Amino acid sequence: MTTLTISIIVVFVLGYALIATESLTKVNKAAIALLMLVGCWTLYMMDPMQYLQLMHPDYTGGAAGMVEKVTGIIQEHLGDTATTLFFLMGAMTIVEIVDQNGGFNWVRKVMKTKSKRALLWRIAVLTFILSAILDNLTTSIVMIMILRKLVTDHKDRMVYASLVIIAANSGGAFSPIGDVTTIMLWNKGLITAAGVIAEIFIPSVVSMVIPALILQTMLKGELVMSEVSDQQNASVSDFTEGQRKAVFWLGVGGLIFVPIFKSITHLPPFVGILLVLGVLWIATEVFYRGLHRGADAEGTQKRVTKLLSRVDMSTILFFLGILMAVSCLAEIGVLTALGQGLNVVFDGNHYLVTGIIGVLSSIVDNVPLVAGCMGMYPVAAAGDMAVDGVFWQLLAYCAGVGGSMLIIGSAAGVVVMGLEKITFGWYMKHISWIAFVGYIAGIICYWFIRTFLYAI
To answer: Where does the Citrate transporter-like domain start and stop, copy by copy (predicted)?
Structure first.
């Protein structure tokens, strides 16, 4: 490992440490992430040829075409990152439109309960189911918006929000369309839809249920439910009950339609999100057109043009910085080398290898980790490395569920962190060990299933 490579790793680790201690430094994590991005890629450009020869052995352009090649590499990574960012912005805007126009009010009434523990289980089950249909990112946004309608105490809501992260990641792990990593493995033909659902479903349930059982001990007493005030009623009275339900089904139903749209058109998911946003935007404009409100009227503040300005740009920029910094680690070969080293150290024990990869996925983005494993390990005709073999199914489980152990270990965690202002330190102190217990329990459950139920 060269000095330059070590320097890039040091910049990433220092940046990560500052993000982890945001509550102490009082420096916004988005600013640190952007500096990580610039620092890592600036160091990379000090001697890019060594990395081009390592990671792109087919490159023959020499020093003359080096800058053009690196620019293309960065643009490729930026394109992949941008699809995530546009998906995030679209999903956040859709949920904001539904929320601001009263679309979640009837869901609030359905889920209303005085028992804190009863609400916890309703939130857990609904999140788990939705994340298997939608992606865990969109599900987390939807559930946080619903929680804001149900729970006024921020300390209690932090507990519920933490369970949303765990349940969303667990629900996405067993579904071929529930998480980016399972989509990658499914599209590559390394797992099948039937195989991953049949064998990962129960471990995923276990990885959600056990943390929920522990977290319910943190909630005591009855829930203080705030009644919707007259002012709040007035704020949603612009639309009729039927229009509010139409907004809800166009928004949430549209989000459910996104994976179907992807399977039909084979376009990236963000295109489907933009389709839903466009349809919902037009629908609300048609509804507002009949209100005959003035330019300064209350109703105009809930139109999409106004709501777009409320998108949390700091969360978007944090995503940009983190994903692009991790892509630099991938381009210097660190992630691939790490995967190979794990395989050697643990002597091919795939339960340990994938288990460690899952822990690592809570530290760095799981997408490049899984991508590195896909390129590093060949598919075998039979055994653990075959299609639907132990390695690939465990990789889907571990990379998805493992991200719950740290709040910045998954897209769901990052979004919840931004929306609910949960600090890295609070989550690590109160939730990380709970998520780890569920994670290990799920692996043990999978081992039992493979060893005794599916043994040949």
So the answer is: 16-386
